[in-house]
Amino acid sequence: MLKMRIKEKISIFNITETVYIIKCYNDRQQGDSEFYSILEQHLGTLIKNPDEILLEELSAVADGFCSTTAFSREFQKLLEYIVSKRINDIVARPTICRFLYETFYASGQCSPGLMQILYKAYTN
């Protein structure tokens, strides 16, 4: 019942709220592929312009991506693209850089090239 209401009102949720919905349903193992697909499409729409995403929101998306199995490979590509586009901003914020590096490192869900960039920034 609640999933149906979320689907109907998906447009009202922001980036962080959408990530937390995904995480909650994944943690409780109550989501299905159709539900996750709808949420992922909405989230993809919200983050499609890398310059408009706050780094804290980007961190929430990375955390949700790395801590669940709800996201597709296509979404991973989009997320990595956004991180690479914002790398200068990320490097300028050591706390965000550290969080992203440790999150991607712990999950193993990041391309080696992006991990190398984050590692260089993390160790400097």
Q: Describe it for me?
A:
The chain is mostly helical. It has one domain. Helices cover 73% and strands 0% of the residues. The chain contains eight helices and no strands. The relative contact order is 0.12.
Write a concise keyword list for the protein shown above.
mainly alpha; 8 helices; elongated; about 120 residues; about 0% strand
Structural classification: mainly alpha
Described by the principal axes of the CA atoms, the overall outline is: elongated
* Secondary structure tally: strands: 0
Give the end-to-end Cα distance, rounded to a whole number of Å: 49 Å
Low-confidence stretches: none
**Element-level helix/strand string:** HHHHHHHH
> Residue-averaged pLDDT, rounded?
91
- Tally of distinct domains: 1
The fraction of residues in strands falls at under 5%
Rg (CA only): 14 Å
